[in-house]
Amino acid sequence: MKSSISYKNWLILSESFQRETKGSWIPQYTVTRPDAKNQTSGVPAHHAQLDKTFWSENEADEFALQDAMHWIDKN
């Protein structure tokens, strides 16, 4: 499940992945900031949390979204 949300003028795209078929899911996200014309501007920030794994894609995506929100709040 690839999902995206807007948070504090940032666009967060969850992109969790598996290293192997039927393996655990690794949370990953991309964060970009849309400009006034709703085009993405600047270099997107990518982050994979390699030390955390989850049994389902939904769990990994939820963690990725929460982690991205925390990153945005700090910056």
Compile the SSE list and pairings.
Layout (H helix, E strand, L loop, with lengths): L2 E5 L2 E5 L2 E2 L6 E2 L1 E7 L5 E9 L8 H18 L1
Antiparallel strand pairs: 1-2, 2-5, 3-4, 5-6
Low-confidence stretches: none
Structural class: alpha+beta
Summed over residues and divided by their number, the pLDDT gives a mean of 85
State the helix count: 1
Strand content: 35-45%
User: Order of helices and strands, N to C?
Assistant: EEEEEEH
Question: What is the 3D form?
Answer: elongated
Largest sheet: 4 strands, antiparallel
**Proportion of residues in helical segments:** 10-25%
Q: Going across the major beta sheet, what is the strand order?
A: 1-2-5-6
Please give the radius of gyration in angstroms: 13 Å
Give the end-to-end Cα distance, rounded to a whole number of Å. Answer: 27 Å
| Secondary structure: number of strands | 6
